[in-house]
Protein 1
Amino acid sequence: MRLYDVDKFRIIVSNRKTHTEQIIFKHKLRITVGALMGLIGLSGWIMISNFMLIIIPIGALLSIWNYKKNKNWIKGAKGEATVFKYLKQLPNQYILLNDLNLPDTFGNIDHVVLGPNGIFTIETKNFKGSYVVEKDQWYFIAGSKLVETYKNPGDQIKTNTAVFSKFLGAHGLKSYRSSTFPVVAFINPNLTVKHKPKTYTVMHPSILAKFIMEPRKKLNKKDVGLIAELLMEYCAEISYSDVIYPSIFSA
Protein backbone atom coordinates (compact mmCIF):
# COMPACT_ATOMS: atom_id res chain seq x y z
CA MET A 1 0.00 0.00 0.00
CA ARG A 2 1.37 3.42 -0.99
CA LEU A 3 0.30 6.61 0.82
CA TYR A 4 1.42 10.23 0.59
CA ASP A 5 2.08 12.32 3.69
CA VAL A 6 1.12 15.78 2.46
CA ASP A 7 2.48 17.55 5.55
CA LYS A 8 5.92 15.95 5.24
CA PHE A 9 6.01 15.57 1.43
CA ARG A 10 6.85 11.91 1.88
CA ILE A 11 5.69 8.66 0.34
CA ILE A 12 4.95 5.86 2.80
CA VAL A 13 5.00 2.34 1.37
CA SER A 14 3.58 -0.46 3.54
CA ASN A 15 4.67 -3.95 2.53
CA ARG A 16 3.12 -5.90 5.43
CA LYS A 17 2.19 -5.73 9.09
CA THR A 18 5.08 -5.32 11.51
CA HIS A 19 6.26 -8.30 13.57
CA THR A 20 4.58 -6.78 16.63
CA GLU A 21 1.30 -6.27 14.76
CA GLN A 22 1.37 -9.88 13.56
CA ILE A 23 1.87 -11.19 17.10
CA ILE A 24 -0.96 -8.99 18.40
CA PHE A 25 -3.26 -10.32 15.68
CA LYS A 26 -2.42 -13.94 16.60
CA HIS A 27 -3.13 -13.31 20.29
CA LYS A 28 -6.43 -11.61 19.48
CA LEU A 29 -7.40 -14.56 17.30
CA ARG A 30 -6.64 -16.99 20.14
CA ILE A 31 -8.62 -14.85 22.60
CA THR A 32 -11.59 -15.04 20.23
CA VAL A 33 -11.18 -18.81 19.82
CA GLY A 34 -11.09 -19.21 23.61
CA ALA A 35 -14.26 -17.17 24.01
CA LEU A 36 -16.02 -19.23 21.32
CA MET A 37 -14.94 -22.44 23.05
CA GLY A 38 -16.50 -21.15 26.25
CA LEU A 39 -19.77 -20.37 24.50
CA ILE A 40 -19.81 -23.76 22.76
CA GLY A 41 -19.13 -25.53 26.06
CA LEU A 42 -21.91 -23.63 27.81
CA SER A 43 -24.39 -24.29 25.00
CA GLY A 44 -23.37 -27.95 24.85
CA TRP A 45 -23.81 -28.33 28.60
CA ILE A 46 -27.32 -26.91 28.41
CA MET A 47 -28.37 -28.80 25.30
CA ILE A 48 -26.28 -31.99 25.20
CA SER A 49 -24.40 -33.20 28.30
CA ASN A 50 -22.32 -32.28 31.32
CA PHE A 51 -19.23 -33.49 29.46
CA MET A 52 -19.26 -30.26 27.41
CA LEU A 53 -18.44 -28.31 30.57
CA ILE A 54 -14.80 -29.37 30.13
CA ILE A 55 -14.51 -27.03 27.15
CA ILE A 56 -15.37 -23.93 29.24
CA PRO A 57 -12.23 -23.79 31.45
CA ILE A 58 -9.99 -24.70 28.49
CA GLY A 59 -11.42 -21.82 26.48
CA ALA A 60 -11.17 -19.48 29.48
CA LEU A 61 -7.51 -20.37 30.05
CA LEU A 62 -6.72 -19.86 26.36
CA SER A 63 -8.35 -16.42 26.35
CA ILE A 64 -6.83 -15.26 29.67
CA TRP A 65 -3.30 -16.42 28.84
CA ASN A 66 -3.32 -14.72 25.44
CA TYR A 67 -4.90 -11.57 26.86
CA LYS A 68 -2.07 -11.20 29.37
CA LYS A 69 0.57 -11.86 26.72
CA ASN A 70 -1.08 -9.44 24.32
CA LYS A 71 -0.94 -6.56 26.81
CA ASN A 72 2.87 -6.53 26.58
CA TRP A 73 2.83 -6.66 22.79
CA ILE A 74 0.30 -3.83 22.59
CA LYS A 75 2.54 -1.79 24.86
CA GLY A 76 5.46 -2.57 22.56
CA ALA A 77 3.45 -1.47 19.51
CA LYS A 78 2.64 1.84 21.22
CA GLY A 79 6.35 2.30 21.93
CA GLU A 80 7.27 1.70 18.29
CA ALA A 81 4.60 4.17 17.16
CA THR A 82 6.00 6.77 19.58
CA VAL A 83 9.53 6.35 18.23
CA PHE A 84 8.31 6.59 14.63
CA LYS A 85 6.46 9.82 15.51
CA TYR A 86 9.71 11.37 16.71
CA LEU A 87 11.67 10.04 13.73
CA LYS A 88 9.28 11.81 11.39
CA GLN A 89 10.74 15.07 12.72
CA LEU A 90 13.85 14.36 10.65
CA PRO A 91 14.36 16.30 7.41
CA ASN A 92 13.45 14.66 4.13
CA GLN A 93 17.09 13.75 3.45
CA TYR A 94 16.49 10.82 5.81
CA ILE A 95 14.78 7.56 4.86
CA LEU A 96 12.87 5.70 7.59
CA LEU A 97 12.36 1.93 7.59
CA ASN A 98 10.14 0.18 10.13
CA ASP A 99 10.46 -3.45 11.23
CA LEU A 100 13.40 -4.64 9.16
CA ASN A 101 13.41 -8.44 8.99
CA LEU A 102 16.43 -9.64 7.04
CA PRO A 103 16.44 -13.11 5.41
CA ASP A 104 17.78 -16.10 7.35
CA THR A 105 17.63 -14.24 10.68
CA PHE A 106 15.55 -14.78 13.83
CA GLY A 107 15.17 -11.19 15.03
CA ASN A 108 13.99 -7.92 13.59
CA ILE A 109 15.18 -4.32 13.89
CA ASP A 110 12.38 -2.00 14.96
CA HIS A 111 13.60 1.01 12.98
CA VAL A 112 16.43 1.82 10.60
CA VAL A 113 17.25 5.40 9.60
CA LEU A 114 19.38 6.16 6.54
CA GLY A 115 20.67 9.66 5.95
CA PRO A 116 23.61 11.97 5.31
CA ASN A 117 24.93 11.44 8.86
CA GLY A 118 24.99 7.65 8.72
CA ILE A 119 22.88 4.55 9.34
CA PHE A 120 21.02 4.14 12.62
CA THR A 121 19.65 0.82 13.87
CA ILE A 122 17.08 1.41 16.61
CA GLU A 123 15.64 -1.00 19.15
CA THR A 124 12.55 0.31 20.97
CA LYS A 125 11.78 -0.72 24.55
CA ASN A 126 8.66 0.27 26.48
CA PHE A 127 9.37 -1.42 29.82
CA LYS A 128 7.60 -0.38 33.00
CA GLY A 129 9.45 0.25 36.24
CA SER A 130 12.82 1.90 36.90
CA TYR A 131 16.12 0.85 35.35
CA VAL A 132 19.84 1.53 35.63
CA VAL A 133 22.39 1.05 32.83
CA GLU A 134 25.96 0.33 33.91
CA LYS A 135 28.02 0.03 30.72
CA ASP A 136 26.67 -3.15 29.09
CA GLN A 137 24.61 -4.30 32.07
CA TRP A 138 20.95 -3.42 32.57
CA TYR A 139 19.37 -3.55 36.04
CA PHE A 140 15.79 -3.32 37.25
CA ILE A 141 15.30 -1.39 40.50
CA ALA A 142 13.41 -3.62 42.95
CA GLY A 143 13.06 -1.65 46.17
CA SER A 144 16.62 -0.96 47.34
CA LYS A 145 18.15 -3.68 45.14
CA LEU A 146 19.40 -3.79 41.58
CA VAL A 147 18.33 -6.93 39.74
CA GLU A 148 19.95 -7.76 36.41
CA THR A 149 17.35 -7.85 33.64
CA TYR A 150 16.47 -11.17 32.06
CA LYS A 151 16.44 -9.61 28.58
CA ASN A 152 19.18 -7.08 27.94
CA PRO A 153 18.17 -4.49 25.29
CA GLY A 154 21.83 -3.72 24.72
CA ASP A 155 22.63 -7.32 23.78
CA GLN A 156 19.65 -7.32 21.45
CA ILE A 157 20.63 -4.20 19.51
CA LYS A 158 24.28 -5.30 19.32
CA THR A 159 23.29 -8.70 17.90
CA ASN A 160 20.83 -7.20 15.42
CA THR A 161 23.32 -4.57 14.28
CA ALA A 162 26.00 -7.22 13.77
CA VAL A 163 23.57 -9.20 11.59
CA PHE A 164 22.69 -6.00 9.73
CA SER A 165 26.35 -5.19 9.09
CA LYS A 166 27.02 -8.74 7.92
CA PHE A 167 24.10 -8.43 5.49
CA LEU A 168 25.53 -5.22 4.06
CA GLY A 169 28.95 -6.86 3.73
CA ALA A 170 27.46 -9.84 1.90
CA HIS A 171 26.05 -7.41 -0.67
CA GLY A 172 29.31 -5.59 -1.29
CA LEU A 173 28.59 -2.77 1.18
CA LYS A 174 31.14 -3.68 3.83
CA SER A 175 32.55 -0.14 3.90
CA TYR A 176 29.30 1.17 5.45
CA ARG A 177 29.70 -0.86 8.65
CA SER A 178 31.68 1.95 10.29
CA SER A 179 28.84 4.35 9.49
CA THR A 180 26.26 2.30 11.42
CA PHE A 181 25.19 3.49 14.89
CA PRO A 182 23.10 1.25 17.20
CA VAL A 183 20.56 2.93 19.49
CA VAL A 184 18.20 1.74 22.23
CA ALA A 185 15.18 4.07 22.37
CA PHE A 186 13.79 3.71 25.88
CA ILE A 187 10.26 5.08 26.24
CA ASN A 188 10.10 4.99 30.03
CA PRO A 189 11.72 8.13 31.52
CA ASN A 190 12.67 6.22 34.70
CA LEU A 191 16.09 5.28 33.35
CA THR A 192 19.48 6.19 34.78
CA VAL A 193 22.59 5.71 32.64
CA LYS A 194 25.47 5.61 35.15
CA HIS A 195 28.14 4.67 32.63
CA LYS A 196 27.44 4.87 28.92
CA PRO A 197 27.77 1.64 26.91
CA LYS A 198 30.72 1.69 24.51
CA THR A 199 29.08 0.12 21.46
CA TYR A 200 25.58 1.61 21.46
CA THR A 201 23.66 4.64 22.71
CA VAL A 202 20.65 4.73 25.07
CA MET A 203 18.20 7.63 24.97
CA HIS A 204 14.60 8.76 25.21
CA PRO A 205 13.00 8.93 21.74
CA SER A 206 12.27 12.64 22.13
CA ILE A 207 15.97 13.41 21.45
CA LEU A 208 16.46 10.83 18.69
CA ALA A 209 16.17 13.30 15.81
CA LYS A 210 18.69 15.67 17.40
CA PHE A 211 21.12 12.81 18.02
CA ILE A 212 20.81 11.50 14.47
CA MET A 213 21.49 14.94 12.96
CA GLU A 214 24.74 15.43 14.90
CA PRO A 215 27.77 15.76 12.55
CA ARG A 216 29.31 12.38 11.71
CA LYS A 217 30.71 10.44 8.80
CA LYS A 218 28.83 11.50 5.71
CA LEU A 219 26.85 9.38 3.30
CA ASN A 220 25.98 10.96 -0.02
CA LYS A 221 22.54 10.73 -1.60
CA LYS A 222 23.64 7.87 -3.85
CA ASP A 223 24.86 5.86 -0.84
CA VAL A 224 21.59 6.37 1.02
CA GLY A 225 19.49 5.43 -2.00
CA LEU A 226 21.58 2.34 -2.75
CA ILE A 227 21.24 0.97 0.79
CA ALA A 228 17.52 1.82 0.95
CA GLU A 229 16.90 0.05 -2.34
CA LEU A 230 18.59 -3.07 -0.94
CA LEU A 231 16.64 -3.03 2.33
CA MET A 232 13.17 -1.88 1.29
CA GLU A 233 11.81 -5.34 0.41
CA TYR A 234 12.64 -6.60 3.91
CA CYS A 235 10.86 -3.89 5.90
CA ALA A 236 7.21 -3.58 6.86
CA GLU A 237 7.13 0.11 5.96
CA ILE A 238 9.39 2.68 4.35
CA SER A 239 9.01 6.46 4.39
CA TYR A 240 10.99 8.62 1.96
CA SER A 241 10.83 11.81 -0.08
CA ASP A 242 10.14 11.29 -3.76
CA VAL A 243 11.46 14.82 -4.33
CA ILE A 244 14.93 13.94 -3.04
CA TYR A 245 14.89 10.31 -4.24
CA PRO A 246 12.70 10.48 -7.38
CA SER A 247 14.24 7.74 -9.49
CA ILE A 248 15.44 5.11 -7.02
CA PHE A 249 11.93 4.08 -5.98
CA SER A 250 10.18 4.64 -9.28
CA ALA A 251 9.56 0.91 -9.87
Protein 2
Amino acid sequence: MKKVCKNCKRVFETMSCKQNYCTVSCRNNYHYYRHQQARVEYQRKFRRTGEYAVDKVQCLICGKWYHHPMSHCWQTHKVLSKEYKIMFGFDITKSQLSKKVQDVMSENTLARFDSIEANLLRHRDKTCFKKGHQVRYTRSAETAERLRHQFDDYHKAVKEGRIKWHYNTK
Protein backbone atom coordinates (compact mmCIF):
# COMPACT_ATOMS: atom_id res chain seq x y z
CA MET A 1 0.00 0.00 0.00
CA LYS A 2 1.36 3.43 -0.92
CA LYS A 3 0.93 6.35 1.46
CA VAL A 4 2.10 9.96 1.74
CA CYS A 5 4.18 10.89 4.80
CA LYS A 6 2.49 13.56 6.96
CA ASN A 7 5.81 15.27 7.63
CA CYS A 8 7.94 15.20 4.47
CA LYS A 9 5.14 14.43 1.95
CA ARG A 10 7.15 11.61 0.37
CA VAL A 11 5.34 8.57 -0.99
CA PHE A 12 6.33 5.36 0.78
CA GLU A 13 5.35 1.68 0.83
CA THR A 14 3.76 0.24 3.95
CA MET A 15 2.01 -2.93 5.05
CA SER A 16 0.06 -1.19 7.82
CA CYS A 17 -2.92 1.06 7.25
CA LYS A 18 -2.10 2.94 10.47
CA GLN A 19 1.41 4.06 9.49
CA ASN A 20 1.43 7.75 8.53
CA TYR A 21 5.17 8.50 8.47
CA CYS A 22 7.95 7.12 6.32
CA THR A 23 10.44 6.81 9.24
CA VAL A 24 10.50 7.07 13.01
CA SER A 25 12.62 10.24 12.85
CA CYS A 26 10.07 11.78 10.46
CA ARG A 27 7.29 11.04 12.98
CA ASN A 28 9.34 12.50 15.85
CA ASN A 29 10.15 15.64 13.85
CA TYR A 30 6.48 16.14 12.98
CA HIS A 31 5.36 15.93 16.61
CA TYR A 32 8.29 18.06 17.83
CA TYR A 33 7.47 20.87 15.40
CA ARG A 34 3.75 20.71 16.24
CA HIS A 35 4.68 21.09 19.92
CA GLN A 36 7.00 24.00 19.07
CA GLN A 37 4.24 25.73 17.08
CA ALA A 38 1.82 25.40 20.01
CA ARG A 39 4.49 26.78 22.36
CA VAL A 40 5.19 29.76 20.12
CA GLU A 41 1.44 30.46 19.84
CA TYR A 42 1.09 30.33 23.65
CA GLN A 43 4.05 32.70 24.09
CA ARG A 44 2.60 35.06 21.49
CA LYS A 45 -0.64 35.26 23.48
CA PHE A 46 1.13 35.95 26.78
CA ARG A 47 4.22 37.91 25.63
CA ARG A 48 6.05 40.78 27.29
CA THR A 49 6.89 39.06 30.57
CA GLY A 50 7.66 41.18 33.59
CA GLU A 51 5.84 44.30 32.36
CA TYR A 52 2.78 45.63 34.15
CA ALA A 53 -0.62 44.82 32.69
CA VAL A 54 -4.09 44.98 34.24
CA ASP A 55 -4.67 41.22 34.01
CA LYS A 56 -1.25 40.10 35.34
CA VAL A 57 -0.24 39.10 38.89
CA GLN A 58 2.78 40.63 40.60
CA CYS A 59 5.65 38.52 41.91
CA LEU A 60 6.18 39.79 45.45
CA ILE A 61 9.84 38.74 45.47
CA CYS A 62 11.08 40.81 42.51
CA GLY A 63 8.06 43.05 41.81
CA LYS A 64 7.62 42.05 38.14
CA TRP A 65 4.26 41.12 36.62
CA TYR A 66 3.39 37.69 35.18
CA HIS A 67 0.42 35.64 34.03
CA HIS A 68 1.73 32.64 35.97
CA PRO A 69 3.94 33.97 38.81
CA MET A 70 4.39 30.58 40.51
CA SER A 71 6.15 29.23 37.42
CA HIS A 72 8.34 32.35 37.36
CA CYS A 73 9.17 31.97 41.08
CA TRP A 74 10.51 28.47 40.58
CA GLN A 75 12.42 29.23 37.37
CA THR A 76 13.95 32.51 38.57
CA HIS A 77 14.05 32.47 42.37
CA LYS A 78 14.05 28.66 42.97
CA VAL A 79 11.11 29.05 45.37
CA LEU A 80 8.34 26.43 45.24
CA SER A 81 4.78 27.69 44.95
CA LYS A 82 3.87 26.25 48.38
CA GLU A 83 6.84 28.03 49.99
CA TYR A 84 5.94 31.29 48.20
CA LYS A 85 2.33 31.11 49.38
CA ILE A 86 3.38 30.39 52.98
CA MET A 87 6.01 33.16 52.82
CA PHE A 88 3.44 35.81 51.82
CA GLY A 89 0.39 34.38 53.65
CA PHE A 90 -1.62 33.21 50.64
CA ASP A 91 -4.03 30.28 50.65
CA ILE A 92 -2.03 27.17 49.67
CA THR A 93 -4.95 25.60 47.80
CA LYS A 94 -5.67 28.69 45.66
CA SER A 95 -3.76 29.38 42.47
CA GLN A 96 -2.01 32.64 41.70
CA LEU A 97 -2.92 33.07 38.02
CA SER A 98 -4.03 35.92 35.82
CA LYS A 99 -7.65 35.98 34.68
CA LYS A 100 -6.58 35.22 31.09
CA VAL A 101 -4.75 32.02 32.10
CA GLN A 102 -7.62 30.98 34.40
CA ASP A 103 -10.04 31.28 31.47
CA VAL A 104 -7.79 29.19 29.20
CA MET A 105 -7.42 26.50 31.87
CA SER A 106 -11.19 26.48 32.53
CA GLU A 107 -11.90 25.99 28.83
CA ASN A 108 -9.41 23.11 28.68
CA THR A 109 -10.93 21.47 31.76
CA LEU A 110 -14.49 21.81 30.46
CA ALA A 111 -13.41 20.36 27.12
CA ARG A 112 -12.27 17.16 28.85
CA PHE A 113 -14.81 17.14 31.68
CA ASP A 114 -16.30 13.73 30.76
CA SER A 115 -12.99 11.93 31.17
CA ILE A 116 -12.23 13.78 34.43
CA GLU A 117 -15.63 12.88 35.87
CA ALA A 118 -15.22 9.23 34.83
CA ASN A 119 -11.79 9.05 36.51
CA LEU A 120 -13.08 10.63 39.73
CA LEU A 121 -15.98 8.18 39.88
CA ARG A 122 -13.73 5.22 39.08
CA HIS A 123 -11.23 6.13 41.82
CA ARG A 124 -13.73 7.45 44.36
CA ASP A 125 -12.21 5.57 47.31
CA LYS A 126 -8.84 7.26 46.78
CA THR A 127 -10.22 10.79 46.38
CA CYS A 128 -12.81 10.94 49.18
CA PHE A 129 -12.01 12.38 52.59
CA LYS A 130 -11.49 9.73 55.23
CA LYS A 131 -12.52 10.25 58.85
CA GLY A 132 -9.50 10.75 61.10
CA HIS A 133 -7.23 11.65 58.17
CA GLN A 134 -4.60 14.21 59.14
CA VAL A 135 -4.25 17.38 57.07
CA ARG A 136 -0.65 17.71 55.85
CA TYR A 137 -0.37 21.48 56.18
CA THR A 138 -1.51 24.25 58.46
CA ARG A 139 -4.19 26.40 56.90
CA SER A 140 -3.44 30.03 56.23
CA ALA A 141 -5.50 32.76 57.88
CA GLU A 142 -7.20 33.40 54.52
CA THR A 143 -8.29 29.76 54.21
CA ALA A 144 -9.44 29.54 57.82
CA GLU A 145 -11.55 32.69 57.39
CA ARG A 146 -13.09 31.39 54.14
CA LEU A 147 -13.95 28.03 55.74
CA ARG A 148 -15.41 29.77 58.79
CA HIS A 149 -17.71 31.84 56.55
CA GLN A 150 -18.77 28.76 54.55
CA PHE A 151 -19.52 26.89 57.76
CA ASP A 152 -21.54 29.78 59.22
CA ASP A 153 -23.50 30.28 55.97
CA TYR A 154 -24.29 26.58 55.73
CA HIS A 155 -25.61 26.34 59.31
CA LYS A 156 -27.58 29.56 58.91
CA ALA A 157 -29.27 28.10 55.80
CA VAL A 158 -30.06 24.86 57.67
CA LYS A 159 -31.64 26.80 60.56
CA GLU A 160 -33.73 28.89 58.15
CA GLY A 161 -34.89 25.72 56.38
CA ARG A 162 -33.46 26.70 52.98
CA ILE A 163 -31.49 23.44 52.83
CA LYS A 164 -31.65 20.14 54.69
CA TRP A 165 -28.88 18.86 56.87
CA HIS A 166 -26.74 16.47 54.83
CA TYR A 167 -24.43 13.93 56.38
CA ASN A 168 -22.68 11.34 54.28
CA THR A 169 -22.21 8.10 56.23
CA LYS A 170 -19.74 6.53 53.76
